[in-house]
Amino acid sequence: QVQLQESGPGLVRPSQTLSLTCTVSGDSVNSGRYYWSWIRQHPGQGLEWIGYIFYSGNTYYNPSLTSRFTISLDTSRNQFSLHLNSVTAADTAVYYCARIGARADQSLALRGTFDIWGQGTKVTVSS
Amino acid sequence: QSALTQPASVSGSPGQSITISCTGTSSDVGSYLGGYSYVSWYQQHPGKAPKLIIFGVSNRPSGVSDRFSGSKSGNTAFLTISGLQTEDEADYYCFSYRSSSTFEIFGGGTKLTVL
Q1: pLDDT tens across B73-103, in order?
Q2: Strand B110-114 relative to strand B9-12, pairing
Q3: Do A110 and B55 touch (CB under 8 A)?
Q4: Which of A37, A114, A122 to mutate to test the interface with B (most CBs of B within 10 A)?
Q5: B35 falls in which pLDDT band (50, 70, 90)?
Q6: H-assigned helices in chain B
Q7: Is residue A6 predicted with pLDDT exceeding 70?
Q8: Greater confidence, A66 or A58?
Q9: Of B1, B38, B95, which has the smallest distance from its Cβ to A103's Cβ?
Q10: By the 8 A CB rule, do A2 and A25 touch?
Q11: B103 beta partners
């Protein structure tokens, strides 16, 4: 059974860097079949795709969002991370990690779909 | 890059059917990549993570009730829930791939109230 688990600080001071980690169990971030994603949800708002990373290290980000986001991969720990620098109160949100099947993998029934999600981690930016 | 357009809210009584629309463009909801349409739907209960309920426009993952069905016409996708139950009360989000800019996009979400 594949599970994703976010971890990180619940409170971050303005102007600091937020770092979140997603630990994957039951699958390998090296599989080459999935992109490992971050999605956020502001209080009372909808879902917003932040970006994702492939096993190759290639990253893709939502062009509508700030360039302050960086996603990285740690294959030795089977984890991937999200870093957001210079945070402000507007970055207060629930952050989810999720996997999405690679669209190029025709054998993957759930390609192009976020099929597994972490439970989410609430981040508050406040002094 | 605006979100896909969904009604903010819909409501229905237990046992009834409701349909939620999701309108995009020919570059996302209306597009096909290799003959496949990447429209999916997610259900989110308060305080919980989203759950996949429909993928590839009209397919249900294992374990999802057949009361949930999906369809598409042109640039608009639809989620229909039949035989409404109180536990269906949740937020629903559509999702698609925007091919014009290598961009993943969600709908704004629809709050379903079961009266």
Answers
A1: 999 999 999 999 999 999 999 999 887 776 8
A2: parallel
A3: yes
A4: A114
A5: confident
A6: none
A7: yes
A8: A58
A9: B38
A10: yes
A11: B98
Among candidate residues A42, A125, A40, A43, the one with its CA nearest the CA of residue A89: A125
pLDDT at A108: 85
Is A106 in Cβ contact with B34 (below 8 Å)? yes
Q: How far is A43 from chain B (nearest CA, A)?
A: 11
- How far apart CA B68 and CA B88 sit, in angstroms, is 10
Q: What 3-state class would DSSP assign to B37? A: coil
The predicted-structure confidence for B66-75, as pLDDT tens digits, reads as follows 999 999 999 9
CB–CB contact A110 B61 (8 Å)? yes
Structure tokens, A86: 């210079």
- Which chain A residues have any C-beta within 8 angstroms of a chain B C-beta? 37, 46-49, 52, 60, 62-64, 96, 100, 103, 106, 109-115, 117-120
* Beta-carbon separation of A115 and B52 below 8 A: yes
Tokens (6 digits) for B43:
């259900």
